Amino acid sequence: MLKKTALFALPVILGLSACAGGGARVDTEYVARDVGTLYSLAKSRADRGDWKDAALLFLEVERQHPYSVWARRAQLMGAFAHYMDKNYIEATGAAQRFLTVHPGNKDAPYATYLIAMSYYQQIEDIQRDQRISEQARDAFNTLVRRHPNTPYAADARLKLDLINDHLAGKEMEIGRFYQDQRQWLPATMRFRRVIDNFQTTSHAPEALHRLVESYLALGIPAEAQKAAAVLGANYPDSEWYERTYRLINRHVPQS
Fold first, then answer.
1. Last residue of a domain, one of 105, 122, 139
2. Are residues 19 and 85 in the same domain?
3. DSSP state of 34
4. 3-state secondary structure of 208
5. Which residues in the chain belong to E strands, given as ranges?
């Protein structure tokens, strides 16, 4: 899914650039060139997939011709080249600079999308710290809020579902760890966080079941029954509800 998204972005952003031919590999260190030649060299590297060289050459367009119309195009193309080179920190920085200088530009939605995707591509498995996941979520939310009617916002909504499921999975992992350590109160807090913040994810039924387990271990069966009732009302066909039903019948006296 992520690779497909990156490839989909290619024709969108290359539409910003002018036509250019090929050419021999060039030294990307500072050599004074006219803006058309320099931009064409950068574009030819992008066309060939030489993303590192392309990014450096687009940066040279900015440096040597900062007030030309090509500088704006080069800034965004440079961000994209960094992205394709998997240099996500540089991609984020370049796209953010573009937005700072050109906040109302027609390509602002794409620059915002590029920032969000740069975070998204760095998301690790649930065993790792989730700060990058949260940054990706915040960036996609910004995109949806500022540019709701763009194709980028439509893709952002799909990505947000995946990110929320990922973050909920991390909370579940920590909650289960606390349960294994018989630390029922912090376990309860983690499961409640899933229910309160990620109730639309696939983890919600299990979170409610684990909450029932934790409440029973804490000796508060009334709260366990409330959580079980929510689980039964929202996920009556879930395997977690079947397990919860048996658990309640076994541990909570029926009046």
1. 122
2. yes
3. -
4. helix
5. none
Number of domains in the chain: 2
Residues 6+ apart with CB under 8 A from 100: none
Q: Does the residue 134 lie in any domain?
A: no
Report the first-to-last Cα separation within the chain, whole angstroms. 52
In this structure, are 111 and 199 located in the same domain? Answer: no
Q: Is residue 167 part of a domain?
A: no
Angle between helices 204-218 and 239-251 (to 10 degrees): 10
Output the pLDDT for position 176: 97
The structure tokens listed for 29 are: 């260190």
Angle at 61 between CA 57 and CA 62, to 5 degrees: 115
State the pLDDT confidence band at 246, using cuts at 50, 70 and 90.
very high
Query: Do the Cβ atoms of 214 and 179 come closer than 8 Å?
Result: yes
Give residue 38's domain range: 2-122
Say how many C-beta atoms besides its own lie within 10 A of residue 105's C-beta. 14
Q: What's at 182, amino acid-wise?
A: R
Q: Are residues 107 and 114 in contact, defined by beta-carbon separation less than 8 angstroms?
A: no
Q: Is the four-CA dihedral 230, 246, 171, 152 of positive or negative sign?
A: negative
Q: If you search the block for the tokens 């394709």, which residue do you land on?
A: 84
**Residue 28 is encoded by which pair of tokens?**
């990307």
Phi first, then psi, for residue 231 (nearest 5°) are -65, -45
State the residue for tokens 């080249």. 81
Asked whether residue 73 is assigned to any structural domain, the reply reads: yes
CATH no. for residue 225? 1.25.40.10
Residue 126, pLDDT score: 54
Per-residue pLDDT, averaged over 212-217, amounts to 96
